[in-house]
Design brief:
Blueprint lengths: L5 E5 L6 E3 H9 L9 H8 L3 H12 L8
Antiparallel strand pairs: 1-2
Length: about 70
């Protein structure tokens, strides 16, 4: 499992700094031109973080980076 990397890019919706997990999740659900943070994705899909992470693992086979 990879370690989290902070990318120095801000979420266009809330301004939070994006990390490698945010980008992986965004691309998996179809955000190809820009990425948003995990918190904004959770709000969009009306899920708690743990539920969202479980769904990402079940449907896309990806897990959060170490350190998150």
């Amino acid at each position: 499992m990879d370690k989290v990397r902070w990318l120095g890019i801000s979420c266009p919706l809330c301004g939070q700094e994006l990390n490698s997990w945010d980008v992986r999740c965004s691309k998996s659900v179809g955000y190809l031109n820009y990425q948003i943070c995990e918190s904004c994705l959770c709000k969009e899909y009306d899920m708690e973080k743990e539920e969202f992470r479980d769904r990402m693992e079940a449907y896309f086979g990806i897990r959060p980076c170490r350190g998150l």
